[in-house]
Amino acid sequence: MNKTNTLVIKVGGALLQQPQAMANLMAALKSMIAAGQHVVLVHGGGCLVDEQLLANGKQTVKLNGLRVTPEDQIDIVVGALAGTSNKLLQGAAIKAGVTAVGMSLTDGQSVSAKIKAKELGLVGEVVPGNPAYLQFMLSQGWLPICSSIAIDEHGNRLNVNADQAAAAIAQLLDATLVLLSDVPGVLDASRSLIPFLNQQQISQLVSDGVIEKGMKVKVEAALDVAQQSGIAVNIASWKDTQALIGFANGVSLGTQIQP
Ligand SMILES: Nc1ncnc2c1ncn2[C@@H]1O[C@H](COP(=O)(O)OP(=O)(O)O)[C@@H](O)[C@H]1O
Ligand SMILES: CC(=O)N[C@@H](CCC(=O)OP(=O)(O)O)C(=O)O
Asked: How close is the Cα of 237 to the center of ligand 1, in Å?
């Protein structure tokens, strides 16, 4: 664990379709917060975005794991991520007895954002900004629940990949980062869990096509944080909440991405 005793936990969107798993996660977070652990929850919601785009007759295009976000899709994306996904998680937190604050990336200038690349449309890249807003909430023992929607200096709403969003928040708070997904961690070509990965092994697995799509974005965000902070980043499943509690007490978890 890091020196600030802060854990940034990112959950992928598939969790939001499983109420029992959300309840289990919130119960685990409640016990961690009661034990004095500071926790920030950053969330995705890619599958809810998919559903809403489909319901509105829109096509989804992804480039290197990132959703191309044209202007005529941004209302739907913001609604699905900063609205439905954020409030589903806040509801689960409140039901579990956790004091939770729903927020998005640019609240209190926590991060600053700009358009990542013209061909991606309204997709943002973010860098750490001012930690004061998050630090205040953590000092109260509250759980900030942060969506991956940002706003740039021109007022444009931007869609940020949630793993990259969590990486920026972890850097902002000098925190330990855990990325929880619907798989036990990074899997090898025969679908076995890889316990440790360094930069060289990651490059090899990416060029072999074993790590691809959303996992490629995730592993690269994890490596970036690990190398900048010197603290390993773990990729694991949100299904095993006991393992998460164990991790807060020093037990290994999923795949460890090493600096
Ligand atoms: N080597 C790999 N190990 C595990 N999952 C992988 C790998 N390569 C690709 N994936 C895919 O990446 C997915 C996780 O990324 P993503 O869908 O973006 O998750 P999340 O929504 O949790 O961020 C897995 O469900 C799996 O389909
Ligand atoms: C630019 C970009 O790709 N944004 C993502 C944001 C949500 C996300 O990352 O959700 P998961 O963590 O559930 O995958 C998207 O639109 O799907």
From this structure: 11
Query: pLDDT per residue over 97-134, tens digit each?
Result: 999 999 999 999 999 999 999 999 999 999 999 999 99
Tell me how far apart the alpha carbons of residues 85 and 151 are, in angstroms, rounded to a whole number.
18
The residue whose CA has the least distance to atom 1 of ligand 1 is 211
CATH class of 6-257: alpha beta
Instruction: Provide the ipTM.
Output: 0.98
Question: Smallest Cα–Cα separation from 231: which of 222, 240, 243, 219?
Answer: 222
Pocket test for ligand 2, best of 67, 74, 115, 237 (most atoms within 8 A of CB): 67
Q: What is the pTM of this model?
A: 0.97
Parse the chain into domains and list their residue ranges.
6-257
**254 counts as catalytic:** no
Q: Tell me the CB-side half-sphere exposure of residue 250, using CA atoms within 13 A.
A: 0
Distance between Cα 36 and ligand 2 center (Å): 30
Encoding tokens for residue 13?
Answer: 């969107």
Catalytic residue at 118?
no
